[in-house]
Amino acid sequence: MAEKIVNIADSVTVGELAETLGLSVTTLIGELFKNGIAATINQRLDFETAQIIVEELGLDVQLKRKTVSAEIHHHAHKLSDKAVPRPPIVAVMGHVDHGKTSLLDAILDKKTAASEAGEITQHISAYQAQRNGRTITLLDTPGHEAFAALRQHGATLTDVVIIVVAADDGVKPQTVEAIRFARSANAKIVVAINKIDKEAANPQLVKTQLASEHGLNPEEWGGDTVMVEVSAKTGQNLDKLLDMVLLVADMEDLRADEDVPAEGLVIEAHMETGRGAVVGLLVENGHLKPGHYLVAGTAYGRVRTLQDFRGKTVKDAGPSMPVNMTGFKELPQFGDGFEIAKSAKKKLAIWRKRLKLNKRKWQPQPMLLAQIFLR
User: Fold this and answer.
1) What is the DSSP letter of 17?
2) Backbone dihedral region of 291: left (phi > 0), alpha (psi from -120 to 50 degrees) or beta?
3) Pairwise CA distance, residues 178 & 93, whole Å
4) Region 261-284: what's the mean pLDDT?
5) What is the largest CA-CA distance in the chain?
């Protein structure tokens, strides 16, 4: 009997996937939990994760990606002549157990990395590191889900991609996926050859694989790809890695407008007891502050609180800064562009436009209208 072919988008909610596969939501959530994912019915899964779960369940189903309409693509902001330099936005990607999170923890001097082997992280964790008085925004994307959603919405979020490859393991399928993403996003690539402290480490073999099979030629071999041999465990060459990232970013002359209404992208969203919708945002232009009216996709709200990646309350979030915000009435989706409005009336106009773009029938409801204008 031939496999059933099911088309899904680059990201799909647990509820949508369960319905598509003809499973109960409870069954699917249980399987996700076995794979280290504590999911809810509204949590979004990337295409690769959905494939893994289908295989784990032993279903006679083949998943294929849907093509996505360009109508919902995130618009590109045209910089003015007043644009100022901004911190680079750097994604850390690679195979699931090659030490991406450990590398970030070492850079940030954190000790919170759980074992990555076999786990699938379902969100972007966003941080900021300092090097020689300069800021670098770092995005940890182990599961690739958020970037799948961002690609779906046409966003070009990342300036530089650090591709982490274990010196004792070499190039793996997720390494290849990371390379493909970086190229599709027109991001600069820096390779971090991790775990060089291990006895079986062979960084030269990794370089040979990347050069011969994937066209990433190391600078020391006459190529144009920066490769740094590092150890997240011992801290070896981590400063050099950050220096190289800044050097590569400087060649791009990264800039942002500050004196404009804030806009950016949703990089995380979940519900918390007592706080409601907690939404991770990455500001691209302008400054986001408490009290701003905000629209992201078809969700709306007013900024109640802003916190940086360490959980410290902040009053202002500028370009390239990741923050957690409370105040949304419902959860927006990964990759949704957000923008602020100067008034509730403007917010309503933006919201209605978004609903129209997403082809949802908008019905004016008195209670809902009252909430929009009075909040």
Assistant:
1) H
2) left
3) 6
4) 90
5) 68
